[in-house]
Design goal:
By secondary structure, this protein is of the alpha+beta class. It contains three helices and two strands; from the N terminus they run E-E-H-H-H. The longest helix is centred in the middle third of the chain and has 20 residues.
């Protein structure tokens, strides 16, 4: 049996087209995490159009992600810790311990 992709059968978060990928609400280039709270199904045109920008929609999932991102930036500014430009790369053997059991091999 073929494993189901997380976005299979879903509608794009940004438009009514069928989803063909996952988009990071807070882009990884801006320090966004690679977890299900930060991922939404998206069609390829919308995913490409959003690229490394923050979302402009006001849905609850995006608002929560943006609020958490702003709080993290504020704490980093308070403590003088620089904001990450990219997430650190974790070697594969060590990364396995962080894999969420609900994710499939497509991620």
């Amino acid at each position: 049996m073929k494993p189901r992709n997380y976005w299979e059968g879903e509608v794009c978060h940004y438009c009514p087209a069928p989803a063909a990928s996952l988009d990071h609400i807070i882009p990884r280039a801006l320090g966004g995490r690679n977890n299900l709270d930060n991922l939404v199904p998206a069609c390829l045109p919308c995913n490409g159009r959003k690229a490394d920008s923050l979302p402009t929609c006001d849905c609850p999932k995006c608002l929560v992600a943006l609020t958490e991102y702003q709080e993290e930036l504020a704490l980093r500014a308070l403590w003088g810790t620089p904001a990450p430009l990219v997430n650190p790369v974790i070697p594969l053997p060590q990364a396995e311990q962080f894999r969420d059991a609900t994710w499939n091999s497509a991620l």
